[in-house]
Amino acid sequence: MNYEGIVYRPPSEARSLIIQVTIGCAHNTCTFCNMYKAKKFRIRKMEEIMADLEEAAAGPFASYIQRVFLADGDALVMKTENLLEILAAVKRLFPQVTRVASYGTAQDILRKSEEELTALRKAGLGIVYVGAESGDNEILAYIQKGVTAEEVIAAGQKLKRCGIHTSVTLISGLGGRERVARHAISCAKLISRMNPEYASFLTLRLYEGTPMYADVVEGRFQRITPDEIVEEMETFLQNVDSPGTVFRTNHASNYVVLAGTLNEDIPAMLEKLRNVKKTQHYRVFRETGDLL
Ligand code: SF4
Prior knowledge:
Blueprint: E1 17-20, E2 22-23, E3 42-43, H1 46-58, E4 67-71, H2 80-93, E5 99-103, H3 106-111, H4 114-122, E6 125-133, H5 137-142, H6 149-161, E7 165-172, H7 180-194, E8 198-203, H8 211-217, H9 226-239, E9 246-248, E10 259-261, H10 266-279
Parallel strand pairs: 1-4, 4-5, 5-6, 6-7, 7-8, 8-9
Antiparallel strand pairs: 2-3, 9-10
Bound molecules: iron/sulfur cluster.
């Protein structure tokens, strides 16, 4: 398997076979993100992708592979005909696979027609992980996400119409001290309108070399405290209305682990937040010179 550079995948894809179909991220301008800064974006050649799939199929663990994750940052940027060829190869080589997943930007999803997305779903694409980050257009512009909240919502609704599950990621603290409530309420509106199958929050962590890291060090952006993160999450949960969405804050960056189903588990999650704030039993993170 010819992996190039550091390969990222969502926590829920920990047991998946990871196949890099692109290298890096076609967008690669988000000011908080350092994941693909060392990679120059390119779509891999089909023969390289097929060779990786054949190699995995010939390996000793082939029959245990249940899920496949197409990396890197936004596999959906590929032409649909090529994605369909890859999905057909997955089906042929690993007939037991139950789900293929990828990251996808709102831009890529909106660029594809509903016929294309439906064809991808029928070929095995079961879930797309969308990094929405915030539902507030000012925050999205500040982080140079390249899309508006309305476009992210439209992309999620399109995936839903085409039968592809969506997992939406948001970032706690992304609005800084100036926009705590605004960020929380906008995220709640975004999730309510998308009604994705899964939604989660990470907490803002910044690596040296990113523009946002410099903003913090030079005083242009004030990060919020764990207590304020909890208040932001309380505001989110008090405003969200997305029945059936599986909700998690269980990433390594989160100060408080929450797990439940919206809307039914909102009271229990609010109760947990109140208790953690009272006892100050936050998960602790190590800040270093190059990680805030
Ligand atoms: S956050 Fe996602 S879209 Fe933005 S640069 Fe990073 S990988 Fe690309």
